[in-house]
């Protein structure tokens, strides 16, 4: 598998890079890739089908000049901020493989990611528990009963995009300030407010990136997504209110 770290980019370009890489693979110009990026500013990203007014404290975002974007995959709304780590997996879809459908893809990827994080999580923090890191809901990673990573999936004919955000050293208060209670919640959340539901892993980004890269055997460097493709996607979608605020 290929491996790529994106440099600091504006939010719209970071979101476009995921789609540009998926497009390139689907067109036969790329291969399975693990991509990382770290936000350098605060912005909100809603899932494709999310209604902004239902999920986001729009007034607070406006007051604090926090932009709102929409991604092409499903799932819930995320506050991107310093201290977070984003990863994207571009995987080939194949019959008789774990990527054959949505459910088996979720199970396969989440278990590998869980195992990777557990390898770098301090053993002293696990104590007598068999495992401190668990998969909850369909695509959440949790430390005990607290969520530190959410994930989502987008599928094409030949390749899929599976990406997520890990809370490592974030200002978690921003989540309560900028987001409303989500309209859809996993059962294990039990209606807890954001402040009682999320946590930081308190691990350095480089350690987590290395662990995930090792778990996925992502050792070969990948070429950067096409700058032209990113620019086109930013212009057509990710810089447009018609896209970002469409629902």
Query: What is the number of independent domains?
Result: 1
Distance between the terminal alpha carbons, to the nearest Å? 36 Å
Structural class: alpha/beta
The helix fraction, in percent, is 25-40%
Total DSSP E strands: 11
**In terms of per-residue confidence, which ranges show pLDDT below 50 for 5 or more consecutive residues?**
none
- Give the CATH topology: BirA Bifunctional Protein, domain 2
Cα shape: globular
In the sheet with the most strands, the strands line up as 7-8-9-10-6-2-1-11
**Mind telling me which CATH architecture this is?**
2-Layer Sandwich
Class in CATH? Alpha Beta
Largest sheet: 8 strands, mixed
Q: Output the CATH homologous superfamily.
A: Bira Bifunctional Protein, Domain 2
How many helices?
A: 9
Rg measurement, Å: 17 Å
What does this structure look like?
The protein has 247 residues and is of the alpha/beta class. It has one domain (2-244): Bira Bifunctional Protein, Domain 2 (BirA Bifunctional Protein, domain 2, 2-Layer Sandwich), CATH 3.30.930.10. It is 33% helix and 23% strand. It has nine helices and eleven strands. The strands form two sheets. The chain has an eight-stranded mixed sheet, with helices on both faces. Helix 1 links the parallel strand 1 and strand 2. Helix 1 (11-26) packs across helix 8 (227-238). The longest helix is centred in the middle third of the chain and has 19 residues, at 102-120. The relative contact order is 0.21. The mean pLDDT is 93.
